[in-house]
Amino acid sequence: MTLPYVVVEAGPDALAEARGELGSRGWRVVDHLDIGHREGGLVYALPVASADDAAVALFTAIEGVGLLVDAASAPRPVVDRLCDDLRRLGHLDHRVSGGGPMLTAEERVLMDLLAGGSTLGAAADALHLSRRSADRRLAAARTKLGADATGAAIAAYRRRLDRLPRPA
User: May I ask the CATH architecture of the domain 105-162?
Assistant: First the structure.
């Protein structure tokens, strides 16, 4: 199974977005280390602010668990070394500031439904929204994804999600 390794330096909004994207792909993100419990589909969310924290994150990844690392307060050499080490284990999704506006949780849920094949009307019904509210959320998501049309927005959203593997 390919595990996700996501290192976020862009702050709490980018961290929340990465958490939401992992959830959309079927991963269960937990905020604590449980040394004895390693189940499939599990990703640990770990803050890394020092070389010791980075070592814990790396050893956790080596033991076969996905990672969502909050490295916003870590020194540059620590982040660089952790990223290099995680790349040796598999694909690394390294998110830094300047990556563009983040989708809100509500926009992600709408885009998940649309990417799954729902029409906008069906997605609005499923989310208990008026069609107009769904249109506004979609318009905001299109802008953030840099897309002129809904199809282009769905494609851009899928490309974002495709950076992350699915659990086996």
Answer: Orthogonal Bundle (1.10)
